[in-house]
Design brief:
CATH topology of the largest domain: FAD/NAD(P)-binding domain
Largest sheet: 7 strands, mixed
Distance between the termini: 31 Å
Helix content: 10-25%
GO biological process, one term: removal of superoxide radicals
Pfam family, one: Pyr_redox_2
Strand content: 25-35%
Order of helices and strands: EHEEEHEEEEEEHEHEHEEEEEEEH
InterPro entries: FAD/NAD-bd_sf (IPR036188), FAD/NAD-binding_dom (IPR023753), Ferredoxin-NADP_redctase_2 (IPR050097), Pyr_nucl-diS_OxRdtase_2_AS (IPR008255), Thioredox_Rdtase (IPR005982)
Family: Belongs to the class-II pyridine nucleotide-disulfide oxidoreductase family.
CATH class of the largest domain: Alpha Beta
Oligomer: single chain
CATH architecture of the largest domain: 3-Layer(bba) Sandwich
CATH superfamily of the largest domain: FAD/NAD(P)-binding domain
Keywords: Disulfide bond, FAD, Flavoprotein, NADP, Oxidoreductase, Redox-active center
């Protein structure tokens, strides 16, 4: 921040949106703090904006579309006084009592308390062809890109709930869906596994990894190379769409080590609280949760962060 530039001052700033950020804003707004949410320039609302039907968020027995759920949370936060800026925080200075946030637009913000709720991003396979065919067959969002592969063979990589959900969703479009998982058992919940197993368009390649993605300039991705983790044997199967659902990486790099993190980048918090290693800085959501990573747990953490921040601001 230059000597001539004065930062916009706030009691509390929430970095990131999604269930954690919006829930924190709802609680802080109702407490009278008029929180500022720096929601992100490109993907406000977090990963749920790229999710189809959400069936396990309490209060919606018929399910709700991910983007709609995020729109409702945003509207609720704004109803109680939250202000939203669609920008990205690029670096921070947490060394003083007042925390400084630098953004991509060049605007600086100063806050007495900060809640980091930036979530996580998709983990990549790191195999030949992944980068080359990104956007031309390789995707990390079934709801974004599924319809491009109507009546074409599709591969989904992963073994958790997200992979099962994506395979089920993509079966509406593809001529076939092959789910590739490196183990013989799934991490996904029983109901999601059973749903995939009962879908006649989904087949399984277990104890196998994708070792390469092949294609050409004209067609994009055309096939994937599978390696048997037991025998080491390789073979190829057709795939015009390759959807990667192998987990997340916490979006904490922009903090530059300003708070203590685990080896995987997840922000460490004090016990069941949201307190980080820096007084006045709190963390909520997938960027502070390497285990559960659910919308409802992120929302719960957002609530805790708001209450922790409120206690900090009033000096408890």
């Amino acid at each position: 921040m230059s000597e001539t530039q004065e930062a916009s001052k706030h009691d509390v700033v929430i970095i990131g949106s999604g269930p954690a950020g919006y829930t924190a804003a709802i609680y802080l707004g109702r407490a009278g703090y008029r929180p500022l949410i720096i929601a992100g320039a490109l993907t406000p609302g977090g990963q749920l904006v790229n999710t189809s039907e959400v069936e396990n968020f309490p209060g919606f027995p018929e399910g709700i579309l991910g983007p709609e759920l995020m729109d409702r949370m945003r509207e609720q936060a704004e109803k109680f006084g939250a202000v939203i800026e669609y920008d990205d925080v690029t670096s921070v200075d947490f060394s003083g009592d007042d925390k400084i946030l630098h953004t991509d637009s060049g605007t600086d913000y100063q806050a007495k308390a900060v809640i980091v709720a930036t979530g996580s991003q998709h983990r990549k396979l790191g195999v030949p062809g992944e980068e080359e065919f990104a956007g031309r067959g390789v995707s990390y969002c079934a709801t974004c890109d599924g319809f491009f592969f109507r009546n074409k063979p599709i591969v989904v990589v992963g073994g958790g709930d997200s992979a099962m959900e994506e395979a089920d969703f993509l079966s509406r479009f593809g001529s076939s869906v092959t789910l590739v998982h490196r183990r013989g058992e799934f991490r996904a919940s029983k109901i999601m596994v059973e749903r995939a197993q009962e879908n006649p368009k989904i087949r399984f390649e277990l104890n196998a990894t994708v070792s390469a993605i092949h294609g050409d300039d004209q067609s994009g991705a055309t096939e994937v190379e599978l390696t048997d983790v037991t025998t080491g044997e390789t073979r190829v199967i057709p795939a015009n769409g390759v959807f990667v659902a192998i987990g997340q990486i916490p979006q904490t790099e922009f903090l530059g080590g300003a708070v203590k993190t685990a080896a995987d980048g997840t922000i460490e918090v004090d016990g069941a609280s949201s307190r980080t290693s820096v007084p006045g800085v709190f963390a909520a959501g997938d960027n502070a949760d390497a285990v559960y990573q659910q919308a409802i747990t992120a929302a719960g953490m957002g609530c805790r962060a708001a209450l922790d921040a409120q206690a900090y601001l009033i000096g408890e």
